[in-house]
Design the sequence.
């Protein structure tokens, strides 16, 4: 049995599954869809460095994932419904990258609450930021997964896991 792990943007990984290049994908579920099997749900929050000063009326600097990211699309949709002026100043294909930009004080970024680390603070309506939707994390499988892929998916969906907080 061979296990190969890939890390990437959810939409790209789900696309690879559809093209037959992957057997199982654990990813954020695109907003407004019900594909995949829900593993958990958690809040998406705006974060910035503890020392970041968000000046009223100033252009909001954003650190976001590349295109086709669930978090990016949710953040931009929320900002489009607001009266805020914003600018994307940093993009990255990884959580580590966008979080590092925020930790360095370069920008604010939307993160799942479980990804908030020491050095970051959660921002919200008090700072004039729009509310973000919850993120859903799901398992996606090929139509007829092999034994190893089915076993991996079953382990990730093991009984006793809560769909409202991360346990894996």
Sequence:
């Amino acid at each position: 049995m061979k296990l190969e792990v890939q890390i990437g943007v959810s939409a790209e990984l789900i696309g690879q599954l559809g093209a037959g290049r992957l057997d199982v994908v654990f990813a954020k579920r695109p907003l407004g869809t019900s594909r995949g099997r829900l593993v958990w749900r958690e809040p998406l929050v705006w974060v910035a460095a503890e020392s970041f000063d968000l000046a009223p009326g100033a252009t909001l600097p954003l650190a976001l994932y590349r295109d086709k990211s669930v978090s990016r699309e949710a953040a931009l949709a929320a900002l489009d419904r607001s009266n805020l002026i914003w600018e994307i100043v940093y993009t990255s294909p990884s959580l580590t990258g966008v979080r590092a930009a925020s930790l360095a004080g370069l920008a604010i970024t939307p993160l799942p609450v479980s990804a908030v680390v020491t050095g970051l603070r959660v921002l919200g309506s008090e700072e004039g930021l729009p509310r973000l939707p919850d993120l859903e994390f799901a398992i996606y499988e090929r139509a007829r997964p092999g034994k190893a892929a089915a076993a991996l998916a079953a382990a990730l969906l093991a009984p006793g896991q809560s769909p409202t907080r991360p346990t894996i």
User: Anything to note?
Assistant: The two ends are 22 Å apart (CA to CA). The chain is about 25% helix and 30% strand.
